[in-house]
Amino acid sequence: MDEELRTLSWDQAVELGSPYPYVLAVTLDDKGKPNVIGLGWWTFASWEPPQVAIAVGRERYSHRCLEHCGEFVLCFPSAEQEEAAWFCGRKSGRNHDKFAETGLEAVPAHVVGPPLIEGSTVAYECRVVDRMEGGDHTLFLADVLAIHGTPEKSRHLYSIHYRKLVSLDHRDFLPRE
Ligand SMILES: Cc1cc2nc3c(=O)[nH]c(=O)nc-3n(C[C@H](O)[C@H](O)[C@H](O)COP(=O)(O)O)c2cc1C
User: Fold this and answer.
1) Ligand 1, atom nearest to 56 Cα
2) Residue 97 in 3-state DSSP?
3) Among 49, 84, 158, 173, which residue has the fewest nearby CB atoms (within 10 Å)?
4) Does residue 22 have its Cβ closer than 6 Å to ligand 1?
5) Distance between alpha carbon 87 and the CA centroid of its chain, in Å?
6) Is residue 130 part of a domain?
7) Which domain holds residue 141?
8) Nearest 10 degrees: CA dihedral of 41, 103, 59, 156?
9) What is the per-residue pLDDT across 114-169, written as a single tens digit (0 to 9) for each?
10) Which of 60, 69, 96 to mutate to test ligand 1, by most ligand atoms within 8 A of the CB atom?
11) Hey, which of 37, 81, 163 would you mutate to test ligand 1's pocket, going by the most ligand atoms within 8 Å of its Cβ?
């Protein structure tokens, strides 16, 4: 009986569907200062051409940055960056310089304006090509223009609801060579 499907709240459903890959999107504000936001709501959106989409709350500072610069870098933070990555999901760039306060290191991207985060497992350079308004978030669809990575830092982060981050390495689940 206990194992039958039953009605859940939105909150319970989000928790039950965990973990979600947790990423950091780097943008530039209107003064050219880089800002970082933690995101669980992102997805691959096309294989050819490669595209991703991110859902960003309209009240986020990053929303304003995206409207202004139209580009972002989507970084998978490595396990070592957990504390900094969590900070970026809890504090706003309106009143924090997240690079300075976390010690995350910004390195120039090859194609887009916002920088890459050194030590990311994977970093996608993205340019927004379309957007769609959801209830309280905007879905930004973007072309992936360049990809970088640090394969030896393959242990990266997943979120359990909005409560905590855990780290997994995909190699732990592959047969040994
Ligand atoms: C685990 C986790 C996942 C999150 N996912 C999203 C998301 O997908 N979209 C979003 O707009 N905010 C998300 N947030 C909240 C933002 O990261 C947070 O509000 C941040 O402080 C916004 O920063 P900003 O004001 O500098 O843009 C998430 C936070 C956490 C902790």
Assistant:
1) 11
2) coil
3) 173
4) yes
5) 13
6) yes
7) 22-153
8) 10
9) 999 999 999 999 999 999 999 999 999 999 999 999 999 999 999 999 999 999 99
10) 60
11) 37
- For residue 109 the two structure tokens come to 């991207």
> What does the block give as tokens for 43?
């997805």
Residue 28, in any domain of the structure: yes
Region of 128 (left: φ > 0; alpha: ψ -120 to 50; beta: rest) is beta
Tens digit of pLDDT for each residue in 92-105? Answer: 999 999 999 999 99
At CB < 8 A and 24+ separation, what contacts does 42-50 make? 42/74, 45/141, 49/143, 49/144, 50/143, 50/144
Q: How many domains does the chain divide into?
A: 1
Give the other-Cβ count within 10 Å of 49's Cβ. Answer: 10
CATH of the domain at 86: 2.30.110.10
Residue 58 has a CB neighbour count (10 Å cut-off) of: 13
> Is residue 165 in a domain?
no
Q: Which amino acid is at 107?
A: V
Which tokens hold the place of 140?
């930004």
Query: Does residue 37 have its Cβ closer than 6 Å to ligand 1?
Result: yes
